[in-house]
Automatic annotation (TrEMBL):
Protein name: Serine--tRNA ligase
Coiled-coil region list: 73-100
UniProt organism field: Alienimonas californiensis
EC number: 6.1.1.11
Domain of life: Bacteria
Chain residues that bind ATP: R258, T259, E260, V274, H275, Q276, F277, E354, V355, T356, S357
GO biological process: seryl-tRNA aminoacylation
InterPro entries linked to this entry: aa-tRNA-synt_IIb, aa-tRNA-synth_II, aa-tRNA-synth_II/BPL/LPL, Ser-tRNA-ligase_type_1, Ser-tRNA-synth_1_N, SerRS_1_N_sf, SerRS_core, tRNA-bd_arm
Primary gene name: serS
Binding site for L-serine: T227, R258, E281, N393
Site (Important for serine binding) residue list: T395
Alphabetical keyword list: Aminoacyl-tRNA synthetase, ATP-binding, Coiled coil, Cytoplasm, Ligase, Nucleotide-binding, Protein biosynthesis
PROSITE patterns listed in its UniProt record: AA_TRNA_LIGASE_II
């Protein structure tokens, strides 16, 4: 979340940023509660001081005075408890409103919403087919790669069984992405698929409530994670780093679970919008300045592009608009791969589909998670105090959508599907069919 003092001191800037991001937060209520909290803290301290002074005077008081002082200490005890209860309620509401305020926004991020991202570049050539290309659902049916019907019976709509070569392709994609990340200095992890509510809220995910996209486990404070960003970020909660320990770069393999509430259509059919998929996530902790996190942001984006270039998949890079950033992100870039069989929204085949994203969250998550780094002076020597680190996250591979792009771009007229050369050592075949 944003720092409370920053919000109060720059309320106009925060309000303008909220409008730019399409977020409606009652800042006036927050500022009122902030003042009320200060008053209650002062009131509580004053009452406690009076309680202490009154109690100290009892032994020396006369019998009549002692009786009055004892009565007063009883009253003060109730007043202190009442003030403390009121303070707790005020702080809870204050934190709730504060948590709704999104991060500040990079000045270069475009204005607008979901469809207003700025295309920075297109890389690779779209395949030119001399035949009518199939979409990935048709290709999967043709080659027996995915079984949606059986999964609907066993688990429900939006789940799937991977079969035959698709299983080996998933393992190949994960292994390939992990090796690329490791070569780039990211430490590999296989993370838990569940996390406590504090881990989800600490990284900016809503574990409960009507608008949550999270599956929660009844009777516990555990939820299925939507991304390893949650577990990788929370694993360092409460940590204070030495300056030389940063940047810390992590890669996490996990399953991801999302309720994906909302409308479904032709553009999201099959593997595009599912409730469970495997992902290799990149996460980094950097020094507490925009230069350090900005460089890491560029490094993560570069690695994502390298992976999709090596896979031979045409893609484009988008600078995501302010209204589509999500609460924690200061700036976000998406990669969209060309998917020849995907509905373009007008019934025609061929459109771009999101396959990765990477976000610079500055100190927004670190403030919730209390992740810090010791300060240094201008000469790099230890100084008093700590700073909140910056955190970043990005997708190395989200397998379900990567499979869509691989299958649809690799299809041939004879019905076979070519496999990218970089994956062949991991899966053991160069084509399907």
């Amino acid at each position: 979340m944003l720092d409370l003092n920053t919000i109060a001191e720059h309320a106009d800037v925060v309000a303008a940023n909220n409008r730019r991001r399409g977020v409606d937060v009652d800042l006036s209520r927050l500022l009122h509660l902030r003042g009320k909290r200060s008053d209650l803290i002062q009131k509580t301290e004053t009452l406690k001081h009076e309680q202490k002074e009154t109690g100290a005077g009892i032994p020396q008081a006369s019998p009549e005075e002692r009786k009055a002082l004892i009565a007063r200490t009883g009253e003060l005890k109730k007043e202190v408890a009442a003030a403390a209860d009121e303070l707790t309620a005020v702080e809870a509401e204050l934190r709730e409103i504060q948590s709704l305020i999104p991060n500040l926004t990079h000045p270069d991020a475009p204005d607008g919403g979901e469809h207003d991202g700025r295309v920075l570049r297109e890389v690779g050539d779209k395949p030119q087919f001399d035949f009518e290309p199939l979409d990935h659902v048709e290709l999967c049916e043709k080659h027996g790669l995915v079984d949606f019907a059986s999964a609907a019976k066993t688990t429900g709509a939006g789940f799937y069984f991977l079969c035959r070569e698709a299983v080996l392709l998933e393992l190949a994609l994960v292994r390939y992405a992990v090796e690329k990340a490791t070569a780039a200095g990211f430490i590999p992890h296989v993370t838990p698929d569940l996390a406590r509510a504090e881990a989800l809220s600490g990284t900016g995910f809503n574990p409960r409530g009507e608008e949550t996209q999270i599956y929660s486990v009844a009777g516990t404070d555990l939820s299925l994670i939507a991304t390893a960003e949650i577990t990788l970020g929370a694993m360092k909660a409460g940590t204070t780093f030495e300056p030389h320990e940063l940047p810390l770069k992590l890669a996490g393999v996990s399953h991801c679970y999302r309720t994906e509430a909302g409308a479904y259509g032709k553009a999201t059919r099959g593997l595009y919008r599912v409730h469970q998929f495997t992902k290799v996530e990149l996460f980094a902790f950097t020094a507490a300045d925009l230069g350090a996190s900005g460089r890491m942001h560029a490094e993560i984006l570069s690695l994502e592009e390298e992976i999709f270039s090596d896979l031979g998949l045409p893609y484009r890079v988008l600078d995501i608009a302010a209204g589509d950033l999500g609460g924690p992100a200061y700036r976000k870039f998406d990669l969209e791969a060309w998917m020849p069989g995907r509905d373009d929204g007008s019934g025609n085949k061929g459109s771009w589909g999101e396959v990765t994203s990477c976000s610079d969250c500055t100190d927004y998550q670190a403030r919730r998670l209390d992740v810090r780094v010791k300060k240094t002076d201008a000469d790099g020597k230890p100084a008093k105090g700590t700073d909140l680190v910056h955190t970043l996250n990005g997708t190395a591979i989200a397998v379900s959508r990567a499979l869509i792009a691989l299958l649809e771009n690799g299809q041939r007229e004879d019905g076979t599907i070519a496999i990218p050369e970089v994956l062949q050592p991991y899966c053991g075949f160069d084509s399907i069919g």
